[in-house]
Amino acid sequence: MGxxxxxxxxxxxxxxxxxxxxxxGAQAIQVRRPAQLEDLDGLIIPGxxxxxxxxxxxxxxxxxxxxxxxxxGMAIYGTCAGAILLAKDIKExxxxxxxxxxxxxxxxxxxxxxxxxxxxLDIPAIGEPGFPAVFIRAPYIEELYGTAxxxxxxxxxxxMAQQDRLLASSFHPExxxxxxxxxxxxxLAASRGG
Amino acid sequence: xxxxxxxxxxxxxxxxxAEMLKGGVIMDVTTPEQARIAEExxxxxxxxxxxxxxxxxxxxxxxxxxxxxxxQAIMDAVTIPVMAKCRIGHFAEAxxxxxxxxxxxxxxxxxxxxxxxxxxxxxxxxxxFVCGARNLGEALRRIAEGAAMxxxxxxxxxxxxVEAVRHMRIMMDEIRKLQNMPxxxxxxxxxxxxxxxxxxxxVARLGRLPVVNFAxxxxxxxxxxxxxxxxxxxxxxxxSGIFKSKDPAKRARAIVQATTHYNDPALLAEVSKGLGExxxxxxxxxxxxxxxxxxxxx
Lengths: 194, 298
Prior knowledge:
The complex is a heterodimer. Chain A is an alpha/beta fold. Helices cover 25% and strands 31% of the residues of chain A. Chain A has 5 helices and 12 strands. In chain A, the strands form 3 sheets. Chain A has a 7-stranded mixed sheet. Chain A has a 3-stranded mixed sheet with strand order 5-6-9. Chain A has a two-stranded antiparallel ribbon with strand order 7-8. In chain A, strand 10 (149-154) and strand 11 (157-163) form a beta hairpin. Chain B has 13 helices and 9 strands. Chain B has helices at 11-21, 32-41, 53-59, 68-77, 91-100, 136-144, 162-179, 186-193, 197-206, 222-230, 240-243, 248-260, 265-272, and strands spanning 7-8, 25-29, 45-48, 82-87, 104-108, 129-133, 149-152, 212-214, 236-238. Chain B has an 8-stranded parallel sheet with strand order 8-7-6-5-4-3-2-9, sandwiched between helices. In chain B, helix 10 (222-230) packs parallel to helix 12 (248-260). Chain A binds chain B through residues 9-16, 32, 47-49, 51-52, 55-56, 59, 80-81, 93, 107-108, 111-122, 129-131, 134-137, 154-155, 172, 175-176, and chain B through 1-10, 12-13, 16-17, 19-24, 39, 42-45, 79-81, 98, 101-104, 126-128, 256-257, 259-261, 264. Strand 7 (117-121) of chain A pairs antiparallel with strand 1 of chain B, so a sheet runs across the interface.
């Protein structure tokens, strides 16, 4: 099918996302300039430091360019920092963001690094068995509105959600060998315009 | 139904945070104000210190873990991860930092070693550790002790990148050599490196360290950062280089951009313009042997 998936390579673990995408037979492109967004089927915004990535996005025109490409049909998946940057509302923060997804998200919601954890997570959309989810100084989604819907919850909080061609997760599938969440996103990217 | 049993402080969680810092700049700060300047400039994390390495070098005497009050004030000032240093082998300082909930502990040669034989057993802690290394053997010994992130030692507090370059080149050369070795030679190489055989095999298979490897020790300009990234660093520590310069905020922003766009010389030229005076540097050759911080630890 020859899907072209960009991985925003400003900061964070973009290399691991690119490996996961390639493992699934799609082409991965490291995106450092907005011009590289043209003709992508999907874009992954990786884990990293959301304030750093947000500032670099603002400095290089991504805050305007990414929503424009989304309107054109590009799918977007944000993990951890990427999920924060997708949200319309970030609790107790005025940091730069894309603000595409109808959700409010809380940064460092579980605490500091000491409170980071791994858990086997039920994600009905990708089926059994449970998914090995790694949460690192992770956010959780406090509220979804509009057409956004939850895909997974952990201890009463939404940790994975979808709205049309937007996908967000608090955890890091790219740190594990399990590619089912990436496969779910690639299917979303393949269905564009549908 | 999947289980909902969560586990903390696993190897994946420890090294995972370092993975998230890749492509970023970690900056030394000594006050909450500096920490906010660093965060505002785009730092991925800050290192909370009482004095930057250049001042530690100038002050002489015994350099210890920073006052927990200073560390706490910096933790309260920013939302990005905060790291702090303990002395080599000083596991009680490390226990204090762990109890405070610091995000990463740097068992650092910048401070005066507390133990000249043994490093901290880093597996025992909830919080992950970063350690300095001059070559592959040293890096793998630290990883075997539990370090979830490595950085080159360079020569801290000098504003001179030459030692960081030396250490990164040695490490990368040794990794390339392992990659090309027939498997039966790996045991002898493990012996020569003074490194655990299992880790040597893993490096040969991966073609890189099993954890993130940052550059540190002497980085002072955007070009220095780009140089280290092109040599294979996963990210950059800047110690004295920012807050010992004329315009710290501007220089910090420039080094952040240079670390992202390290392969774009035209952009590097732009961000390097008009940064004001860099920190004064030191020619390593003028330093007496006993003042070399990189010799601390093994």
